[in-house]
Amino acid sequence: MVIVSHSSKIAEGVCELALQMASDYEKMIPAGGLEDGSLGTDPMRILDALRSANDGDGVAVLVDLGSGIMSAEAAIELLDGEFPAKIADAPLVEGAVVAVIEASTGASLEEVIQAAESARGEEKL
What we know:
The protein is an alpha/beta fold and 125 residues long. The chain has helices spanning 8-19, 43-53, 67-79, 92-104, 109-118, and strands at residues 2-5, 29-32, 59-63, 85-87. It has a single domain (2-121), classed as Phosphotransferase system, mannose-type IIA component (Rossmann fold), CATH 3.40.50. α1 (8-19) packs across α4, α2 packs across α3 and α4 packs antiparallel against α5 (109-118).
């Protein structure tokens, strides 16, 4: 799983929080910010994260917003079918938490994506 955010701190924090729920899961990679530490997203950094996260079953990607989505799509295109990767239409934090729990059970990529997307309807109050 790859967490894409414009902020490296947000991507790392989402991973830290989600991994509290599935501490034995090792393939959750943050891909946030630019190489110089500034805000932004970089398809090449995301591509590197995708390759690091891949364990042979494909990679679920959760993104924050706007150009993060476009950068993640570009990175997936750069894979050129090397392995499956899919962006979940899910809230970043809630989606990451339920997705990592699902992934830790050995679920398929589609099951992980579905779990993440199920978090869209979660009410706060």
